[in-house]
Amino acid sequence: MGYISWKREGRTAEVLIQRPPANALSSSLIADIEQAFNEIEQDNEVRVVLISGEGRFFSAGADIKEFTTVQSGEEFSKLAARGQRVFERIENFSKPVIAAIHGAALGGGLELAMSCHIRLVSEQAKLGLPELSLGLVPGFAGSQRLSRYVGTAKAAELLLTSEPITGAEAVQWGLANHAYPEEELLSKAREMAAKIALKSPISMKAAIELLNFSKHAEYYRGVEREAELFGEVFDSQDAKEGIGAFIEKRQPVFKG
């Protein structure tokens, strides 16, 4: 696994995203996440998973440079569906998953964090879905998970303005569980993980299954439609302009 490492500390598997400078979620990083979770599932000593990012960020988004290598909208939809599948696996994982978010969780990074069962943030962390500023839409089920946490109006604001909120605001919005000063974040996350690890693995697995029943059939239809639209929007001139402007570090001019 090139971009993900994990180690067992007591009964916690500590998963680290290691893709400097931004821990951007490339296809290969997502594949590494899946492999790590496959390994952790087989380890009966692990009771809880804690995921964090190395360096300045948790994950500052998807890998935009990788987007430029995608040839068609159809291929882009497949890329979305792959990410959705891995993040759905995390949300249904048999062991509780905690995300410890510092620096930024943007775009795909926030979508990864939203698939975890619990989100702990540093007070100044930036959380958002800026895809519309690139002429795109979220592709890893972010459009569906976000409104489950913050409600439709707040989700609309985050999506349509592309402006991130702070970790402290994320707690007020219901997007994160607790916010801490950055230097305390990991120790607080480890503390919570250790507390959860004392529970019976059988009852925790059952509780996670029960929590996931709140995702009804329409949710899954929305996720499927998101992947389709991810590809359709990608085929537009506006998306090419948005991605180009991002790489050239300029303001995009969208023509619709």
TrEMBL record:
Matches recorded under Gene3D superfamilies: 2-enoyl-CoA Hydratase, Chain A, domain 1
SUPFAM superfamilies xref list: ClpP/crotonase (SSF52096)
InterPro entries given in the database record: ClpP/crotonase-like_dom_sf, Enoyl-CoA_hyd/isom_CS, Enoyl-CoA_hydra/iso
Annotated CDD domains: crotonase-like (cd06558)
Source organism, top-level taxon: Bacteria
Family: Belongs to the enoyl-CoA hydratase/isomerase family.
Classification via NCBIfam families: PRK07658.1 (NF005803)
Protein name in UniProt: Enoyl-CoA hydratase
Organism ancestry: Bacteria, Bacillati, Bacillota, Bacilli, Bacillales
